[in-house]
Amino acid sequence: MRKQIAFGALALTAAVVLAGCAAGGSSEESSEADSSAKLVIWTDEERQTAVKDAAKAFEEETGATVEIVKKNFEDLRNDFIAQVPTGEGPDITVGAHDWLGALVAAGVVDTIDLGDKASEFEPVALEAMTYDGQLYALPYSLETIALVQNVDLVGADAPATWDEMIQKGLASGAERPFVINTAGETGDGYTMYGFQTSFGAPVFVQDASGSYTTEVGMGGAAGEAFATWLGANGTAGTGYISTTVDYDINNELFNSGKAPYTIQGPWAISAYPDVANIAVNPIPSAGGETAAPFVGVQGFYLSSQSKNALLAQEFLVNYLGTEEAQRALYEADPRIPAWSTLASEVASDPVIAGFLASAQNGVPMPSIPEMGSVWDLWNAAQSQIISGADPVSTWNTMVSDVQAAVEG
């Protein structure tokens, strides 16, 4: 049975937690627990120093010890799934939110309760770490894509719609009004998702808690409208979207001034050294609804096999779940903070502010295992439509194939 520890309601102190770890009642047993209780935390090199700082304060205040194990980020998920059931895994690991479905399915993570601390985090960050209505991790960072624009060509104001953006792009005199990465002929549903959601066609439907269901949401009239728009702007239409554009070509066209607008993430900004003035804004709507791109979230998971689960919860909520710790994590690896006041603070940088605004419009990338059945079919259908295939029939075939794969 999963444990729910309401720190805000119960007001657990480190002393109470450690006393519980003693598995007894005498003061001698509690004192012994103070010196013998231990947490093991897995992290990668980028986050190691920040986690160590929080661990040092935790050790000084509780008498417990914390062992920090540095691992390659690419190895964390598979090692966690493999080692937790054997008892060799950590109490806590850093990880990405889109691991969550696999971690829950493997039974290797436990729920956490942030209590009053929940109000300190960006809602989309908590939503990302929620599965079947239960919170499974303490979030700390966000990342998403947004509209990146060349201020010298089109100004800094955010276009509200696709049509407004295209008109400004055409008026700029640039070779193309807009460019977007389609991963060449592979298709890139991730980058195109903001436009798709503006038609009201999500990949999967979310329930009231924000958790994703397995109901495919991109069928019906909304999905067909998006597909029709995609075809109209592909090679058989305006040509503004092309399967000749991959990630590098996209960046080259924007950096050279041949396109004044693109859709990209903060990781690409360094690829634009020749653009003197960059503005970042939310993605404009193509379908009338708010464009909601995918948001990626990183945070800290609690092992379902932790021998000191109360102690681990205390560390997560009251030592990593503080503005000081969240600031240290940001300084170690400067992604948009999930801690709201810190996010607002770093958003004094207008580029960060633009990505934050886009993230606040966004939705978590689905973490359910069924998402693995979507990517290839979804990307291929978009590529085919951009290249001239019949939009409605191609899209509906893809939706049927995705639903069959999810149910199968």
UniProtKB/TrEMBL annotation:
Residues 1-19 form the signal peptide. Gene3D superfamilies: Periplasmic binding protein-like II. Keywords: Signal, Sugar transport, Transport. It comes from the Bacteria. Belongs to the bacterial solute-binding protein 1 family. This is Maltose ABC transporter substrate-binding protein. It comes from Microbacterium arthrosphaerae.
